[in-house]
């Protein structure tokens, strides 16, 4: 129980850092902060404290996928998650499972182990 509380506090601290930072790069109208905030409801699943993604999580995955309409945007968002996924304790296997569990086609890669240079539009 104490471990879950500490992980939640750690997640909240990292998310707060993202939200107040002015150095996070804008990605053609979608900032790294916005991308992470959109998937905030997914964090309990992504860090392994929940067994399945929630409906708000899946809506966020779908929204982010729709907003990332070019290869460049998708690559920038991929780099964002690659950089900030590990401090949030995101489990790569959970990140890989998320789009399929949410039934989102052509998702933005959120896997911190992804080679973002290989990301395409489709």
Automatic annotation (TrEMBL):
Its GO biological process annotations read:
lipid transport
GO molecular function terms listed in the Swiss-Prot or TrEMBL record = lipid binding
Keyword annotations of the record: Disulfide bond, Lipid-binding, Signal, Transport
Membrane: is it a keyword of this entry? no
Q: Which CDD domains does its entry note?
A: nsLTP1
Q: Which domain of life is it from?
A: Eukaryota
Against SUPFAM superfamilies, the record matches this protein to: Bifunctional inhibitor/lipid-transfer protein/seed storage 2S albumin
Keyword field contains Signal: yes
Which InterPro entries does the UniProt record give? Bifun_inhib/LTP/seed_sf, Bifunc_inhib/LTP/seed_store, Plant_nsLTP
User: Bifunctional inhibitor/plant lipid transfer protein/seed storage helical domain: which residues?
Assistant: 32-116
Q: How far does the signal peptide extend, from start to end residue?
A: 1-29
Describe the family membership recorded for this protein in Swiss-Prot or TrEMBL.
Belongs to the plant LTP family.
Describe the task this protein carries out.
Plant non-specific lipid-transfer proteins transfer phospholipids as well as galactolipids across membranes. May play a role in wax or cutin deposition in the cell walls of expanding epidermal cells and certain secretory tissues.
Q: What is this protein called?
A: Non-specific lipid-transfer protein
Question: What organism does this protein naturally occur in?
Answer: Ricinus communis (Castor bean)
């Amino acid at each position: 129980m104490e471990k879950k509380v500490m992980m939640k506090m750690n997640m909240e601290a990292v998310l707060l850092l993202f939200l107040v930072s002015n150095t996070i790069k804008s990605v053609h109208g979608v900032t790294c902060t916005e991308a992470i905030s959109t998937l905030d409801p997914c964090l309990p699943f992504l860090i392994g404290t929940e067994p399945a993604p929630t409906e708000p999580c899946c809506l966020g995955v779908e929204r982010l996928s729709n907003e990332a309409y070019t290869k460049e945007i998708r690559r920038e968002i991929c780099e964002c998650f690659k950089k900030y996924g590990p401090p949030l304790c995101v489990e790569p296997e959970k990140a890989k499972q998320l789009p399929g569990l949410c039934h989102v086609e052509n998702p933005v890669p959120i896997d911190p182990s992804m080679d973002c240079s290989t990301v395409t539009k489709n």
